[in-house]
Amino acid sequence: MTVDILPWLDLEIIEQRLRPLDRAFARFLATLDASADARVLAAAAMTSKELGDGHICVDVNELAERVPWLHDVADELRASPLVATTYEDNASPLVLDGDLLYLRRFWRYEVGVAGAIRSRLAHEGTPAGLASELARLFPPDDMSPDWQKIACAIAARGAFAVITGGPGTGKTTTVVRLLGLLQTLAIRRGEPRLRIRLAAPTGKAAARLNASIAGQIERLNVDAQVKQAIPAEVTTLHRLLGSRPDSRAFRHDRDNPLHLDVLVIDEASMIDLEMMAATLDALPPDARLVLLGDKDQLSSVEAGAVLGDLCARAEAGRYDADTVQWLAEVCDVDMAAWRDPEEARALDQRVVMLRRSRRFGEHSGIGALANAIRQGDTQAAGQTLKASSGDIALQVPTADGIATLAIEGRAGTPGYRAYLDWIERERPQPDAPFDAFEAWGGGALQAYARFQLLCASRHGDTGVPAQNERIAQGLAARGLIDIERDWYEGRPVMVTRNDYAIGLMNGDVGITLWIPDGQGGMALRVVFAVLDEHGKERVRFVVPSRLAAVETVYAMTVHKSQGSEFEHTALALPTEPSAVLTRELLYTGVTRAKTHFTLLATPDIMAYAIARQTRRASGLLPRLL
């Protein structure tokens, strides 16, 4: 390795601008090319660090702004055998594509995703009978345009569509109508029923979609045979693609594609670039893909912001003249206000933003607060909290105050005492049939999910471990739990690593309960809500000793809460500025609440978070425009 880079790498780690992993990557590259220029190795280490922060690539022009001696790094990168600048070179670990520097694997993912989407954008047509079926599914509405109707039309027109919108805007309702529409049109053409699969990134998100979709199918204004052809089963993406333990590869890929005609993926904001690449790789070339999600939520935990990239222009619409005219014909809608022929691109014609929330009414503090945060309006957010009628509240956080709120709730809203009281009150008799304990276990999970404390991170007094400890101590002091042993009745736990052997996924939540052991005694078991092979939710009891990777979950991070909703949600922010505090984190936390939300933060910290919008570096959108 070039001698003069060693002290720099060490200093960057001390200053926490690089990780030991990034230094190790630079050292590895030096073994591949003993004459590698220090600037190339430094750029590689910084690219590795950016990837760890969620960025797919780094703009080499920005490197010199951070490290002045990298001002001419682009020339060195182009000359280095460690870096490819053409599509033909498949051996180099780095790729310089224009001014963007990638690790090769992630460059390959991005190019693959862009290519797969572009090929689907080229598929376009108007199914016979589309206009009449849309009119039947969507009766005249006083609110014009009807974005749900427009979303169905656009998704029916091609092989790729993105439907984005905030909570309560009707994403699930829209997709159920879309599936009814597609099956109706297929049946009327005399074709076989479409093979439709529904998926979500996590088990929680899949269970939530599964619970809401069945009832909507029954209410759908279509023939009985069409209803029967719409699946209510939802699976996780990992299960759909066929996860292989200890491998990045899936059973389904380009050589073994999925057997389906339509794939709908909910909570798409949680999908990272690598998972999107695997999904598109496993899709048959003529299959239709529909992505649903909220573009303003947190991006995926792993690198990339695929939904954010795809929806970056959704707010403005940017429909071309052909799309505007086509929508007028099939939807009887005037879209002149959303016409932008100069800026319109092919991707824009397949993206629809639902703009009318039905969950949060006109006087909803949660809805108003979420909207103010989404728009970056700090003043409006503060005024909304001050003028609240009771569904939202701002409290200055103290370590003990957060725990007290989590236990007792606020002004009639539930805290954790409520689910522990429910467990004791509804406990079956010891000799009750086992299905009574299964029902009790399911009820305990529902009671627990009425409230959730969310934290911005795992660090400090407002972080997950500290709050888990304080809440457990507070519950024990009130006689609600017994924490003398690691496992105790009422302990909520979250799975922290996929466990394929017992069928539990990262993020699954269970409650510890005493149940009959089948031999006349009682035993502690952890009850989980799981999906069976048909996508139906059921409860499952697991022996605690089989849970190798779990943690207590009185508190969880905002990231872990995605795909869930709670009657009362409280969000604790740190008392000092932090890199984790962003507009997206705050918005995601607020929108987990169904009826009540409590923000545990100072006004200054709230304003700091709203002002900081996440921008993940990526070349995906430019490849699609």
UniProtKB/TrEMBL annotation:
<keyword id="KW-0067">ATP-binding</keyword>
<dbReference type="Pfam" id="PF21185">
    <property type="entry name" value="RecD_N"/>
</dbReference>
<keyword id="KW-0269">Exonuclease</keyword>
<feature type="domain" description="AAA+ ATPase">
    <location>
        <begin position="157"/>
        <end position="358"/>
    </location>
</feature>
<feature type="binding site">
    <location>
        <begin position="165"/>
        <end position="172"/>
    </location>
    <ligand>
        <name>ATP</name>
    </ligand>
</feature>
<dbReference type="GO" id="GO:0017116">
    <property type="term" value="F:single-stranded DNA helicase activity"/>
</dbReference>
<keyword id="KW-0413">Isomerase</keyword>
<dbReference type="GO" id="GO:0043139">
    <property type="term" value="F:5'-3' DNA helicase activity"/>
</dbReference>
<keyword id="KW-0540">Nuclease</keyword>
<dbReference type="InterPro" id="IPR041851">
    <property type="entry name" value="RecD_N_sf"/>
</dbReference>
<protein>
    <recommendedName>
        <fullName>RecBCD enzyme subunit RecD</fullName>
        <ecNumber>5.6.2.3</ecNumber>
    </recommendedName>
</protein>
<comment type="similarity">
    <text>Belongs to the RecD family.</text>
</comment>
<keyword id="KW-0238">DNA-binding</keyword>
<dbReference type="InterPro" id="IPR050534">
    <property type="entry name" value="Coronavir_polyprotein_1ab"/>
</dbReference>
<comment type="subunit">
    <text>Heterotrimer of RecB, RecC and RecD. All subunits contribute to DNA-binding.</text>
</comment>
<dbReference type="InterPro" id="IPR027417">
    <property type="entry name" value="P-loop_NTPase"/>
</dbReference>
<dbReference type="GO" id="GO:0003677">
    <property type="term" value="F:DNA binding"/>
</dbReference>
<keyword id="KW-0234">DNA repair</keyword>
<dbReference type="Pfam" id="PF13538">
    <property type="entry name" value="UvrD_C_2"/>
</dbReference>
<keyword id="KW-0347">Helicase</keyword>
<dbReference type="InterPro" id="IPR003593">
    <property type="entry name" value="AAA+_ATPase"/>
</dbReference>
<dbReference type="GO" id="GO:0008854">
    <property type="term" value="F:exodeoxyribonuclease V activity"/>
</dbReference>
<dbReference type="InterPro" id="IPR049550">
    <property type="entry name" value="RecD_N"/>
</dbReference>
<dbReference type="InterPro" id="IPR027785">
    <property type="entry name" value="UvrD-like_helicase_C"/>
</dbReference>
<dbReference type="GO" id="GO:0009338">
    <property type="term" value="C:exodeoxyribonuclease V complex"/>
</dbReference>
<dbReference type="Pfam" id="PF13245">
    <property type="entry name" value="AAA_19"/>
</dbReference>
<dbReference type="GO" id="GO:0000724">
    <property type="term" value="P:double-strand break repair via homologous recombination"/>
</dbReference>
<dbReference type="GO" id="GO:0005524">
    <property type="term" value="F:ATP binding"/>
</dbReference>
<keyword id="KW-0378">Hydrolase</keyword>
<keyword id="KW-0547">Nucleotide-binding</keyword>
<comment type="function">
    <text>A helicase/nuclease that prepares dsDNA breaks (DSB) for recombinational DNA repair. Binds to DSBs and unwinds DNA via a highly rapid and processive ATP-dependent bidirectional helicase activity. Unwinds dsDNA until it encounters a Chi (crossover hotspot instigator) sequence from the 3' direction. Cuts ssDNA a few nucleotides 3' to the Chi site. The properties and activities of the enzyme are changed at Chi. The Chi-altered holoenzyme produces a long 3'-ssDNA overhang and facilitates RecA-binding to the ssDNA for homologous DNA recombination and repair.</text>
</comment>
<dbReference type="InterPro" id="IPR006344">
    <property type="entry name" value="RecD"/>
</dbReference>
<keyword id="KW-0227">DNA damage</keyword>
